Amino acid sequence: MAVPGQKPKPHIQAVREGTFRPDRNSEGARFAPSEPVEPDWDELLPGDSAEDVRGKARDVWRRTIPALVVAAGLTDSQRETAIEYCLTVARLWQAERELSRTGLVVETERGNVKSPWVTIAHQYRSHFRSLVGELGLSPASATRITPPDFGGDDDGDVFD
Question: DSSP readout, the chain?
């Protein structure tokens, strides 16, 4: 069951803003700073029919996860969330592609009905929105993510 109210700020953000109170804020979990390892998509999604989904998940991983490591400090301990995000994007892409091929309505022995791909796309889209919020991938949720402190110089430019 969801907890009412705003999502709590990360510990370090409350400290930086000067709003940290031990009775209201906790440090939360700290993970070792190790970069997530890309899964073996062939093992995770076996079979010839999953080739397109594997390719899309692989592409999403390679475009998104390195950026999350730098921007949000994503670690290998949080790898499963990253994998879930990639699979969700790939499955949503698959559902939308099938909807384009078959249409929103399909003919059955009982007449015309809503395509099952509509329901699948809706469920994956809902899951996608929650993962985007968790990972800070939307413009609004990105403002709630505190970049990791890599140490070193104070210019803040981690892309040198």
Answer: -PPSSPPPPPHHHHHHHT---TTT----------PPPPP-HHHHS-SGGGHHHHHHHHHHHHHHHHHHHHHH---GGGHHHHHHHHHHHHHHHHHHHHHHHH-SEEEETTEEEE-HHHHHHHHHHHHHHHHHHHHT-SHHHHTTPPPP---S-SS--TT-
